[in-house]
């Protein structure tokens, strides 16, 4: 008994010393980095930093902390030094005046898994690679000429949906508009990005939705990277399942496009064809310092990011538009008169 008490006492002393050491070093690190002072902020705890202060509603907790520490505040999320900005003037400094410095998204474990090591547009660090990928996506998919080119497809799909809803309404059926909006966006997106209509073989929707959930999920490994090998939340098997599902889908799409090209069956090039035309080519042939050869993982990551970026955002925008119309009878009446 006495020996177990002394073991506990020893362990307690050891951990107290360790925690005090972390606490002191973390405090001094917060004060100075590269010899420069960080903005003021609450004192971080060892290992978790200020994570415990975020609570259930982080935006409100941060707003309360900003009242005490100012509109440019420094906190630590686990091991990650973070600056919280909470006034329009300060936001302008970060997002406009010094935007190049802060343009990269933070690295997260999930995007590293699913985006082939952050090779898509969403999580690639700001720089020459990201700028070129953005240029390709804008020119080939998002420019006004491309948006106009797809107008007949959008019109056809919307007309078909309106017909379906009219028929359902005539027979008194309930219509799940959220599901219909998602289906509509899926149909557009498949046509625009992979140049084909959807079939049962390719159901990427559940994988994308799970991806979005996992992107926003709190992952302790993102904040305390030395714990990553332990995978305390058991997230890695979920990441791997998404990666495998998406990769199978993308492999099939790429194979299909390559076969169609060899058979000479293509009337016009879609986004995947354009991306495949860069395969095995240097990305910026005129810039020898940034000679990046495009491989299939780059192409798969770019296609996946465009599909992920398009699907949920546009669906949610439609859902919100509908709910706002329903909440405002004046707008609803004007709409009914116009149609
Ligand atoms: C109503 C529809 C949409 C909304 C509200 C929306 C909103 C956003 C927002 C807020 C961002 C983050 C911007 C930033 O961090 O600076 C973003 C990024 C992105 N969006 Fe959209 N988006 C929409 C439609 C689309 C569509 C149709 C596509 C693809 C065809 C797309 C692809 C992307 C991609 C790839 C990114 C990452 C860009 C980057 O990090 O450089 N989005 N979107």
Topology record:
Layout (H helix, E strand, L loop, with lengths): L1 H30 E2 L2 E2 L20 H12 L2 E6 L2 E6 L2 H10 L1 H4 L6 H6 L13 H15 L1 H6 L1 H20 L6 H18 L10 H12 L3 H4 L12 H28 L7 H6 L19 H32 L1 H10 L1
Antiparallel strand pairs: 1-2, 3-4
Helix pairs in contact: 8-9, 9-14, 10-12, 10-14
This protein binds protoporphyrin IX containing FE.
The site of protoporphyrin IX containing FE has 11 residues, from α6 and α14.
Describe this protein's structure.
19% of the residues are buried. A hairpin with a 2-residue loop joins strand 1 (32-33) and strand 2 (36-37). The longest helix has 32 residues, at 296-327. This protein has a two-stranded antiparallel ribbon. A two-stranded antiparallel sheet has the order 3-4. Helix 8 runs antiparallel to helix 9 (177-194) and helix 9 runs antiparallel to helix 14. By secondary structure, the protein is mainly alpha-helical. Mean pLDDT is 87; it is low at 1-29. The protein has 15 helices and four strands. It folds into two domains: 2-102, no CATH class; 128-338, Cytochrome p450, CATH 1.10.630. Protoporphyrin IX containing FE binds at residues 121-122, 134, 141, 305-306, 309-310, 313-314, 317.
**Total number of helical segments?**
15
* Global Rg: 26 Å
| Count of spatially separate domains | 2
Largest β sheet strand count, sense and barrel closure:
2 strands, antiparallel
CATH superfamily of the largest domain: Cytochrome P450
Structural class determined from secondary elements: mainly alpha
Strand content: under 5%
Helix and strand sequence: HEEHEEHHHHHHHHHHHHH
The helix content, as a percent range, equals: 55-70%
Enumerate the distinct ligands.
protoporphyrin IX containing FE
Mean pLDDT: 87
Number of strands: 4
Q: Give the name of the CATH architecture of the largest domain.
A: Orthogonal Bundle
